[in-house]
Amino acid sequence: MPVITRADLDDVRLLTFLQEHLDDLAPTAPPESRHALDVDGLRGPGVRMWVAHDGGDIVGTIALAELALGHDELKSMRTAPHRRGSGIGRLLLGHALDDARERGVGRVSLETGSADFFAPARALYRRAGFVECAPFASYVEDPHSVFMTTTLR
After folding, report:
1. Which segments cross the bilayer (predicted)?
2. 26, 29, 97, 111: which has the fewest Cβ within 10 Å?
């Protein structure tokens, strides 16, 4: 069973995992339609990131970025390709949403891709209570994006 800990953004293994995330996204949309945070963005104020470890391996990541008081955005959700479909994404998502609830966050929103590559992620988000919504924060309508949100209780 994976163990979830706060991210150490100086860990070379994590930096490699995050670069692989950006590389995975590159063929799914043009650059102006890719909204994943780079490492500098993940180091920014109001960003909380976690890593799922199994044994000595990094098997997943997730982050929350504060948009406004009581409203966070889900970012950098990734499961290692060889572990997709094994429940790691569900564990990470539950962990992040629990953290948001504990901090009094009432709403979590996300942007994900519209390509088939992202269909499993969209299904996971729907099962967790997310519904499609209009673009939020600085996002605009984009055929490569799907916007989702959930209210936390």
Report:
1. none
2. 26
